[in-house]
Amino acid sequence: QNEEKCDFVLVSDIHERGCEKEIKRKKFLDELSKKGFTIKKIKDTKLFYGVRAPKDIFQKYQHLRRKADSRQPTSSDHEEVEETARIRIVNFIVRNTVTPDFEKLQDLMKKKVFEAAFALHEEEEIKKILSEKWARWGVLFKEQPIEAIRCYFGEKVALYFAWLGWYTYLLVFAALAGLVTIVAGTTVFSSSQVSKEICDANTTIMCPLCDQNCSFWVLSDTCTYAKVTHMIDNEATVAFAMFMAIWATVFLELWKRERATVVTKWKLHEWDEDEEELALQLINNSQHKPRWYQHSYFRSTIILILALLLIMVLIGIAHMLVIYRAVAMALFTQSEVNLLSKHANLMAVMTGAVLHYITIIIMTKVNRRVALFLCNLEKPRTLSQQENSFAVKIFIFQFFTNFSSLIYIAFFLGRINGHPGHYVRIAGRWRLEECHPSGCITDLFIQMAIIMLLKQAISNIMEYLIPSISCQLRKKRKRPKKRSMMLGEEEEAEDPCKRQWLNNYELNDVYIFSLFDEYLEMVIQYSFTTIFVAAFPLAPLLALINNIIEIHMDAIKMMKLHRRMVPRRAKDIGIWLQVLEAIGILAVIGNGLVIAITSDFIPVQVYKYMYGPCTRENHTSMDCSTGYINHSLSVFRIQDFEPHTKVLPEFKGHQIEECRYRDYRNADDYTYTVQFWHIFAARLAFLILFEHVALCVKLIAAWYIPDVPQKVKNEILREKYENLCNEPSMMEYVTEV
Description:
Helix content is 62%, strand content 7%. By secondary structure, it is α+β, with helices and mostly antiparallel strands. Helix 2 (55-68) runs antiparallel to helix 11 (273-284), helix 14 (344-378) packs antiparallel against helix 15 and helix 15 runs parallel beside helix 19 (514-530).
């Protein structure tokens, strides 16, 4: 039965005899036959061609691999090749076979000569193990059978799931730390002096939030907002940000150890991609000449210019979102609907976040096309190089798509909007948004929460539903009940392969970057989990919940909804490791900036130790931040409003002459006070100190945890020693001596 088993299946429409497509198909199949392939034909509503490779191809592969790697233990050329290697070799040859018209399978598929080409999901023992222990919801919290995944899908897929499992496991610690931070914010720091002062400030009259017919408002109206802000913005957040910087390093260092153990166990630590590719090329064509590495500075310059243009477009989109929020804020404030006018800022932030999510969906498709175009322009030599090149480009584009708006909220919102009487305006009309008197960090929290929840929930639903529905539709397509087949109808009707081929054909196609998409999704999620985690401590918890579902959803998709992925060899996760390391450094910078600039942590500390009641007298009973809110609000005389500003001068029956706004400015000429410069210097000093300490801790952690465990190093050393001792020349030399 093993002799009859096909390695690969080609599917074609039933074309008219003698037509161009039929001729092209025959030419291609003839070329495969010349290489010794046996081809089995089954006719249904489509034509199915089962391709089986001759034994000598696999013997040739083993011989070439042994020549390339003399360290490999000697074995017979007639040894059985692994199923994954078999599929990989056949896939390579089928896709690189050239017809007399110089057309490959890809060209023929574009011309609709062939409709599909795929490896088969086999009804073997390993598939049953994966279906029971991996590809079902009942094993949600069980360990993944990585060895079985490797034997069925190859090392590249197995390494992805090993990495994802390791990342998910370590997210447990980050999620717990995030929960502790939130719990500490709601309990230990709930009786914050700052939020208490905001809630008690029923006599503090604040300046209007818009220019036309907006009334003054009382600071105590935002009591709930202040409490939520302090739940995130407290001393525990600083410790959590430092913890996450260390966690990101420890995660990567521990993954390097895990990878080294797994790869050594699989005997892949000395495997070379170039050698593998050359071996496959020589099996396909013994006259093959290698394609040399090349680099063009002109081409690189063009790619750089085009990439920068797209990045500028992405930053422009972030600007459009800023404009939307400013306009929405003005419109909501003047709305007749009480709910909108009362919560104008919150509504502008929330609708802005949803709009940002929509731009992410649209721009992801654009980014993919541009990255692929730039990648083809670069002309990478191997598939792995193409993936690495594509990965770097799409990650950079996706980073700007996802984070441009967040960067604005974190570092620019409320800092470039001017002050009453001299506001910065869009098109000379709409005022830029202001920060809440208790800080801007809640805006960032809301934006991140909405994007992460929408992104994870919707993308997971779509990721599962679309292939599932597509699969059901393909299965429901009519197949003729009556078979009016040619000679040999009964044999074909009873052919055991037919049902299996049809079942595989009805599954969704897998394309070259299927696994790449999974990596990209996780790396963007990792960015959200680390870069601005100080503003959203629940990010690791959301990522953990998502990943537990994601692992098994991907497993179900691969096993039951998609055709079998062509197994590929790999000894690491490729360029993604460098991308993750870059995110780790960005996380240190991002969190340092969030605490130094976005958070009110520094201004409160400066007030406590330079201006607060504790500096004047030894008030043991008084909180050192008493009076902070009053001190952080500047005074504005309403007679200095711009001429076109129409405010209602009366508020609750009182004539208003002065109002307060969040800034550190003098009451007479509205220039910055000395306190502003003190805070500015403290922010800068904290940023430098935090980043240097965090980066030093990261370096110490990286040094302290070796990349390769001693056990693995000793195993490799023993292997080298045994290989040298077993060399015939060595034995002869020892005998002579």
